[in-house]
Design goal:
- The structure is a single chain.
- The protein is mostly helical and about 140 residues long.
- The protein has four helices and no strands.
- The model has no long low-confidence stretch (mean pLDDT about 80).
- Keywords: Membrane, Transmembrane, Transmembrane helix.
């Protein structure tokens, strides 16, 4: 049901056509906006006596005896020799191979096979030595 204040369909079509015509006529032109005047704000700065300018106030004065001195950390634990050799096999042998490739050193076949066996053996040894026990579900690995 049509309301009394609704425009006629012909009037509505003419209004839409007029709006589209305005859009087409103004296409590509940019509207120039006048800059608005910003209100002037007076900044009030407190008056500071000249004697305070030489020595700025120190807020956090800590007595030297009250400073926190952390304890010396424990020495880095050294892995057992078998695990150290296994880690060298996993990381050291690929580094040696990469160095030989970059420099252009050709190694004998038996030495290349020995390095491949060292890499695979070191990786296998580290996998075998891994713990089979599952971690507790609440353990996030943090040590306090």
């Amino acid at each position: 049901m049509a309301r009394d204040d609704d425009p006629e369909p012909a009037d509505l079509a003419r209004e839409r056509e007029r709006e589209w015509q305005q859009i087409v006529e103004n296409f590509g032109e940019r509207v120039v906006l006048e800059p608005e005047e910003e209100p002037q704000v007076d900044v009030v700065r407190p008056q500071v006596p000249d004697e305070d300018l030489d020595d700025p106030p120190v807020r956090d004065q800590i007595h030297p005896d009250d400073e926190f001195v952390p304890p010396t950390p424990p020495p880095i634990p050294r892995p057992p020799i078998d695990r150290l050799l296994a880690w060298f096999g996993v990381f050291g042998i690929p580094a040696v191979v990469l160095f030989c490739i970059v420099v252009g050193i050709s190694v004998p076949t038996w030495f290349g096979l020995l390095m491949a066996a060292g890499f695979i053996g070191g990786f296998g040894y580290l996998v075998v030595k891994m713990s089979d026990e599952p971690r507790p579900p609440w353990d996030d690995g943090a040590v306090l």
